[in-house]
Amino acid sequence: MKKKTSNSPAGPSGSENTVTPASISRRTFIKGGTALAASTILGGAAGAWMPAPAAAHGPIDIAAVKGDDYFHNTVKAVEMLGGMKQFVSKQSRVGLLINSNQDNPGSYVKPEITLAVVRMCFDAGAREVGVFKSLSGAYWRRSKLSGKFKDEERGVRFIGGDPTRVTIPGGRSLKRAEVAKALLDCDVFINMPIAKDHTAVRFTGSMKNMMGTTTHSTNRFFHFGSGSSGWYDDAEFLSQCIADVNLVRAPDLCVFDGTEVITTNGPSGPGRLIKPKTVFAGTDRVAMDVYGANLIGLRGEEILATRMAHEHGLGKLDLTGLQVHEVAL
Amino acid sequence: MRQMSARGMIAGVVLLLGATAVAAQPSPGDLSGYLPAGGEVSGWKPDGAPQTYRGEALFRMINGGADIYHEYGFNQVVRAAYVNAGGQSVNLEIYQMKSPASAYGIYSFKAGEGGTPLTIGQEARLQDYYLNFWKGDLLVTVIGLDSDAETRQGVVDLAAAVDTRISDTGKRPDLADRLLDEPVGLAEAKYVRGPLGVMGSYVFDTGDIFRVREGMIGTVDDCLALVFRYPDAAAGAEAYASATARLGSSARFTDGVRQGNRYSMLDRERSSVQITQAGPYIGIVVGKNQGRVAAVSERLVKRLNSD
Fold it and tell me: What gap in Å lies between CA A251 and CA A190, rounded to an integer?
């Protein structure tokens, strides 16, 4: 594989960590890579707002992998960050926040991406892999890989119940919240959103996905806490609550689905479907949201929750100084 | 993906109509009666029991996506899955809205731009993998979970089968009729009933500064045109005054100039924005070419004043 930049310290990890489905060998996977510029890789809606990636110095901030095999894209993106062992140590308990509760095309994280992350977590030595949203049999059956990864499907358990109260001293609109206790208890927290349209807040990414860890009553406060009469009458208050709840816990890793996504009628669709075929991973959740917004033709700074999260100091809004490495497989 | 020709689809639909013309009419309020039975659509059979969601329970079906339906006026929905022998799946959703205007509105919002028009229901439009039509107070959405030709044909056939079971038709809102026809000729139009419907087209502010309760949005020439209707001229004037005052202090816009009932400004993309209050209406035109914006705005206002 040719890398876009030359001095990345975080190349593919050793073969003992490799996660590959039986159908494609690791050798084929690596040889299949071809570096492309961002505008070429992403094309379509992405072109207008995509900043030029920085020259290669220091660790990778965002690893983006484009290709038809979404399982492999996921593995490669995490490997570019140093491999899952960088994030998951032996005997650790991992919590996955997967945007999986819709079923129209382009509205949910592909099962192939989930399978790849689960497999990598177990291979890294995780004792337990839990999900904050339960994954139904129908979810797994949307993937042609489903039958090949029955252990992974059975291996995840639901950890989204058992709410606990937290205080958020730095919160501007949200001072207290009820979140799944596992959010605080898990050793490793991996946020797995899909970069898609949202009719009301324009974009659903890692910030918005955190509402998947909160209870219904807390979510109602997001929508009605300012006294508004409609679910989305006060987008500013809602966005501030989203930014505030992200103060509760930072993800150790974000793995984003940018493969097939809706750019209208979100978050549930059906809507206009674009296929950037890209999985991207990183640890700066604000930068990841900006990258995801770019992917569907939006500017990160125009997404209120993203901007407010940046104001909280949760990450970078400007990608131009970051190490954004993009490859095509 | 193999594309299906419009002629092929229509032929399939005609055959299907003949086969299902005797389908029984459902009783009022029972949406499940609109669902095609097993064997009614060749190659497709129901997969599991249909689910019905009423009122606020819609949030259980489409968490995060329900509010736009409530903005238009939602009563209930029935959702059913169909499968074929190849294991492909189609989801069928029938939404009963509060009125034909509500059904037309949510249809116009969801159908989006482009697609293939089909003679199913009222204004059926087939996109890559899904189809929407409205009829009476119903919106019918049929979604293929794959985009292959067989699934697309299933989407069309299931939609046609539902159409034969719906007897009532509805009338578009008069605001739509007024703006869709010449001289305005609004294209890619959607009828909105609140701020959520506006947000996806243009963002003036994070709040509902125009207090939108009814409007039309679409394109005229290369301009975006928005028309909001208020109960009377006084309400229109009040909304105009408060919205333009807010826009005048917004960091999103510059070069604001007020001339009586007309306000012009530039947005961040240096597009020209012209806002005009005309009786109970506010007309807004956005475009890169200032001359065309002015010309379209003039046509729009002339039409709105022609009552």
Answer: 5
- Is A193 in the B-facing interface, judged by CB distances under 8 Å? no
Q: Are B265 and B300 in contact (CB under 8 A)?
A: no
Contacts with A269 from chain B: Cβ below 8 Å = 65, 143
β-partners of residue B135 are: B138
User: So what's the pLDDT on residue B45?
Assistant: 97
pLDDT of res. B24: 53
C-alpha distances in Å from residue A196, one per residue of A258, A276, A308, A313, B120: 8, 12, 19, 24, 30
A235 reaches B (C-beta below 8 A)? yes
**Chain B environment of A214 (Cβ under 8 Å):** none
Taking only the tens place, the pLDDT of each residue in B19-36 is: 444 455 566 678 999 999
Q: Which residues of B touch A264 (CB under 8 A)?
A: 112, 200
pLDDT given at position B9: 53
The DSSP annotation for B244-281 comes to HHHHHT-TT-EEEEEETTEEEEE-TT--EEEEEEETTE
8 Å CB contact of B145 and A142: yes
Picking from B231, B228, B220, B232, the residue whose alpha carbon sits closest to that of residue B276 is B228
**Share in percent of chain A as helix, strand, coil (round to 5):** 35, 20, 45
Q: What does the block give as tokens for B58?
A: 């819609």
List the 152-191 stretch of A: residues with Cβ below 8 A of B: none
Nearest chain B residue to A199 by CA: give it.
B200
- Is A264 near chain B, with CB under 8 Å? yes
The CA distance from B42 to B287, in Å, is: 48
Token couple for A298: 């939006």
The shortest C-alpha distance from B306 to chain A (Å) reads: 33
What residue ranges in B60-162 does DSSP mark as E strands?
74-84, 89-97, 116-118, 122-126, 130-135, 138-144
Q: Does A105 touch chain B (CB under 8 A)?
A: yes
Question: Average pLDDT for consecutive 10-residue bins of chain A (329 residues)?
Answer: 34 30 29 33 37 58 98 98 97 97 94 97 97 92 87 91 95 97 98 94 95 92 80 82 98 98 94 96 98 95 94 96 95
Q: Which residue of A has its CA nearest to B110?
A: A265
> How far is B110 from chain A, CA to nearest CA, in Å?
6
Contact B107, B137 (CB under 8 A): no
